[in-house]
Amino acid sequence: MGLLIALAGNQNCGKTTLFNCLTGSNQHVGNFPGVTVERKEGRILGHKDVSLVDLPGIYSLSPYTAEEVVTRDMLVHDHPDAILNIVDGTNLERNLYLTLQMMELRVPMVVALNMMDEVAASGNVIHVEKLSEHLGIPVIPIAASKGEGVSDLLQAVLDVAQNHRIPEKLDFCTGEVHRAIHSIAHLVEDQAESAGYPARFAATKLVEGDDPMTKALQITEGQQHILDHIVQEMEEAVGMDREAALADMRYQYIERVCKDCVVKHQETREQVRSEKIDRILTHKIWGIPIFLGIMLVIFWLTFSVIGGPLQGLLEEGIGWLTDQLSNLLIQANISPWLHSLLIDGVCAGVGSVLSFLPLIVLLFFFLSLLEDSGYMARVAFVMDKLLRKIGLSGRSFVPMLIGFGCSVPAIMAARTLSSDRDRKMTIILTPFMSCSAKLPIYGMITAAFFPHQGALVMISLYLLGVLVAVLSGLLLKNTLFKGNSVPFVLELPAYRLPAPRSVLLHMWEKAKDFIHRAFTIIFVASLVIWFLQSFNWQLNLVADSSESILASIGSVIAPLFAPLGFGDWRASTALITGLSAKETVVSTLTVLTGAGSDLQLSSILQTMFTPLSALSFLVFTVLYMPCVAAFAATRREMGSMKSALATALYQTTAAYLVALVIYQVGSLFF
Asked: How far is CA 596 from CA 224, 339, 581, 602, 604, in A?
């Protein structure tokens, strides 16, 4: 059987970077706490029988959050052959807190002392051999982002795993805490062994009042009485509660170790630079306006300066290829219906969406720069005060931020929130963030009606989603989810230059996902839409799509949207097909209108909409329920179909009401 290595450490210490380095995997790396939401597994390069699991970043083995549950369950129940504990050398004291807890698991373990290049650049020194002696486990200095020391690290990990070298018995507790831990360890030793836990690890968890451990060991009522008595005596003796006493015990030991092993002259250059930058970017008054200004510049560059011309070139290329294919089909004397299927259905539907690829890639290039530099973590910090007013904490900003990319991983990321209340509220509000799949819709309508105000329209739509989320949060906070949010603790990583490989990888992932959707979901949707708009109920080809199956279905739905300004059956049909994937709205309108190019589509749209009704249409697409994949994720995370349906109904109702107000009020003035 092969070896299983668990890669564990604090958030933002370089786990995913090291994972990619060891496995050659293409996991995205971000300078942002909480990038890894679930465990990821890969084979180590050159060692096909060795698996490496990248676990979510955590600070403790106390299972308060979903990340801590995932990591603890894997370390305890999956019995890895070794733990590869990656530690940030620039924040050694904080990182070693988790190290001490994992050593109690009695699993072979190696410490990867990361970011040693930054430690050296600041003039600081860590005596690695001394640190290894204190901990009783191998400590290997590395710089994961540069690949330095990784081969030595791999050799050390394989050595301890193959020879099952567990950490030397380390008893770093003293005084009353020492007495409490060892008394409880003797009390539950047999039960811990039966349940598969080391006695000391089980004892420390029981001292902390860990409910999962109490249940796992099946603590009897009599034992619980003895436990409570031991803990009460400890608390009275040290003058702290149980959790604070254990934390103080660990940090006292860490302080002694660092005093002997670390020569600290100054903060690292990255930390000094970050503090200077943060005085501006996290300013209590200017922090949010600066963020909005940065996003406005990004949208301006994406949709006007760079992205617009690139989109035009790609559209011309797709148009040329479509014309060539059409000529070949005509020369081959292909049946008219098959010609229509391929050209008016597949090429028009898929091609209309593909032309927006430059906008998607460019937007995520800029967002990746912000994330990898460490700036997005600051935005979460700045947003905490605002989110707290609607009953959430800044930690909810992380899923919401991911929602600007795709609602599915954003909804899944909400599981990292420790409060069930915060988690459910975040799941409901996150789809109001404009995902990348809606960009083609924005681009289509903006090109037709607001060509010279593209950046302003785009940021207005994004802000509208945020505003509706804020108002919805206030409503939910005072109705279904009364109470306060949990305290927000976020590590602010040092500002770093984004790694070109990571940025390019992020862009490639988004491009690949977009292209995959274009040739799967949108391809199939284009075929279905072409069929429904080309045949009537008797399955006869129709000359006018207004006589088709799709027209009759759309005509039933269209009156619902008439008060919003777009009663055309083609518009309402596009919104329905958009539930499969939001990009399908564009391909549906392209197929239904028979437009051969974006220019033709813009001309036809101007006959279907007025500028005001087009704006109303945009507003509805921003806010109404996300795609079926996001709906499925909501059902899974909320735990019931009823909750998922209620969430989708709320989102769609909010979209309808906001679009209704904008159109009806706007009609009074325009």
From this structure: 75, 14, 22, 11, 11
